[in-house]
Write a structure and sequence with these properties.
Length: about 350
């Protein structure tokens, strides 16, 4: 297995094709904070319709949810109408529902790969929450299975669709403001209190995998895969500097971690210095993104939506087209996971580490 995934798919013989007016039926596995967030995003996405939900905790199947995540967005109130949406504690029941064409997997990380394989085998398209898995080998196992499934299997990386973050790769690659001199990404917040799962690093991967991976993915998107990483801190709060063999910036750093005080506000930021401009995003500012050029501050127009909403729209469109253009791939997830694995190695040894790469 070479770790690649063709994002054009061939539907199996006899498979149903969708008209432009037919809503894509979505089933959500897992109704914790992130599952509830995805559910609302898909419920509001044009061309999509949530038809089924599944959670092992039957108390979550009454249509209401009260958990919130590190972006402070409450998902309390009515989540879905139990009279219109099939709600079950059995995964098989959701996968057996013919109305479900796309399965959104929002269960604990260590269940992602096996559930995604079950969904693919049931003939469903799949969106699997990040991280796909805690090892590149496991992501590769899913990628290999997905290659022959005739269905899309998309890693959920909502920051690619987050207004202000979605513009950054184009600014870097466009060259209008010259090459990038330095880049810094920051993602810090209180340790998740809405689930005990996160406290078990053997299952969650700690902040290194569960939080910091967003910025590692953005480093890859903007500058390509790093040739070397040097990490300090701990898996709960890591700072990594990245070295690139090609034309990447001389200084690229990402810091991510869960802070000890539960009252600290979540911080999400980047500062990218070009030869002739500086791009800044700060979640705590309004507007969140600014571009400084020639001593003047410009404020790009941003969409009034979250990255989850943009992602849901892109995934629905991909399923309708039958190809994954514009969405993350499992091949990319493998490479990002290999970088995070190298960061874990660097943390352990105190020395720089070289990520393994596909041949």
């Amino acid at each position: 297995m070479n770790g690649t995934q063709d994002d054009r798919i061939e539907l199996p013989e006899g498979a149903k094709t969708l008209s432009g007016d037919t809503p894509i039926g979505v089933g959500v596995l897992g109704l914790g904070f992130i599952g509830a967030t995805h559910l609302r995003a898909f419920a509001g996405a044009a061309g999509g319709r949530v038809v089924a939900v599944c959670d092992a905790d039957s108390a979550r199947l009454d249509g209401r949810a009260g958990e919130h995540g590190n972006l402070g967005a409450s998902v309390g109130g009515e989540l879905f109408d139990p009279g219109a949406v099939m709600a079950t504690t059995e995964v098989g029941a959701l996968l057996g529902d013919e109305r479900v064409e796309l399965v959104c997997i929002c269960t604990p990380t260590d269940t992602h790969v096996d559930l995604a394989i079950r969904a693919l085998d049931a003939g469903k398209h799949v969106l699997v929450e990040k991280p796909v898995a805690l090892s590149s080998a496991e992501v590769g196992r899913l990628a290999e299975h997905a290659q022959g499934a005739g269905r899309l299997c998309i890693p959920a990386m909502c920051m690619r669709f987050w207004p202000g973050w979605d513009l950054l790769p184009g600014l870097v690659r466009g060259g209008r403001y010259g090459r990038v001199l330095s880049a810094r990404f920051e993602r810090l917040g209180a340790a998740p209190a809405w689930s005990g799962f996160y406290a078990d690093a053997s299952r969650s991967g700690d902040a290194l995998f569960d939080l910091h991976i967003h910025d590692v993915d953005m480093v890859h998107r903007c500058f390509g895969a790093p040739s070397e990483v040097r990490s300090s801190g701990s898996p709960g709060h890591v700072t990594t500097s990245y070295t690139f063999g090609g034309e990447g910036p001389a200084a690229a750093v990402a810091e991510g971690g869960w802070l000890s005080d539960p009252g600290v506000e979540f911080r999400m930021r980047y500062v990218v210095e070009f030869e002739r401009a500086l791009a800044e995003f700060d979640l705590g500012k309004s507007p969140a993104m600014s571009l400084f050029v020639g001593g003047e501050q410009h404020r790009p127009a941003l969409r009034s939506e979250t990255g989850w909403e943009g992602q849901a729209r892109a995934v629905i469109e991909a399923v309708r087209r039958g190809d994954g253009r514009g969405t993350p791939t499992l091949a990319e997830a493998i490479e990002v996971t290999r970088t995070v694995e190298a960061e874990a190695q660097s943390l352990l040894t105190g020395r720089p580490a070289t990520p393994e790469r596909s041949s």
